[in-house]
Amino acid sequence: MEGTEGMERSRERDITQKKERLLALMAEYALQDTMVAFSGGADSSLLLKLACEAAAETGKKVYGVTVQTRLHPLGEAGEARRAAQEMGAIHLILTVDELEEAGIVDNPPDRCYLCKKYLFRKMLERAGELGIPFILEGTNEDDLHVYRPGIKALKELGIASPLANVHMTKEEVRTLAAAYGLQAASKPAVPCLATRFPYGTSLTYGKMRQVEQGENYLKGLGLRNVRLRVHGTVARIEVDAEEFPVLMSRRVEAAAYLKGLGYGYVTLDLEGFRSGSMDYAGAAENINLGDDLENIQY
Fold first, then answer.
1. Is pLDDT of 158 > 70?
2. Coil/strand/helix, residue 32
3. What's the pLDDT at 78?
4. pLDDT value at position 47?
5. How far, in Å, CA of 122 to CA of 65, rounded?
6. For residue 294, what pLDDT is reported?
7. SS3 letters for 106-165?
8. Which of 251, 198, 190 minimizes the C-alpha distance to 216?
9. pTM to 2 decimals?
10. Which of 8, 86, 94, 229 can pair with 236 through a Cys bridge, CB separation 3.0 to 4.6 Å?
11. Can you tell me whether residue 95 is helix, strand or coil?
12. Total Cβ atoms within 10 A of residue 166
């Protein structure tokens, strides 16, 4: 028991120290107008909240910029707008068509790098128009230790990542976001729909809307973390292992629905939900971005 209590005290101490360093960083940024790349997820919500609180002390403006992209589920931009306005930020939406303009129509292994480079260049253009010298975004410590080629693009463009700078993990972000009363604290990650397809697959908006429709249906069954990975005519379902019984109790209905969307075969992945599962098939070996992502400094 004492060991458990000691670990908990150590964890609380770590979060407190990281929070203090993060608040000091945000106070520095708030000396000027600030732009935050705001998706509405836990990471960017915490950043935007802290940016708004810091700016309240300096009288500067905070812009939360959401990219309206067809590679993400519809409705995310609307939720982001409501959240940003509640925090006191000026919300901006940039509408893009990165499937064609970012050169990712064939879903290359460096898709995330190409997409991030394209999207943040657009944000930098908007920031320049507003006279804002920098953009903040929500990469956290955990992101530095998995396959995230987009991080290289952020570094090249000089985008600031305060959460990674203070080594705050995803769990710590969620804990701190909950302490601030942010609804996004427990919100599951919503990665772009291109992640549902193997690298080298020709992407279309029709295919991605089909995936979105399937995932929305599965979430409607009460499943929390859901990914519908598509391999040709095969739809591979990933859900948390403890929720297998929920899905299996509706398996006939679920299979019929997904087949109705056009999939020939419907399978359940016995390994369960795992973020980035399409990267496990040697993705990191197929691309050399020139940096050890774990050693990127902000």
1. yes
2. coil
3. 76
4. 97
5. 11
6. 38
7. CCCCCHHHHHHHHHHHHHHHHHHHHCCCCEECCCCHHHHHCCCCHHHHHHHHCCECHHHH
8. 190
9. 0.84
10. 229
11. strand
12. 20
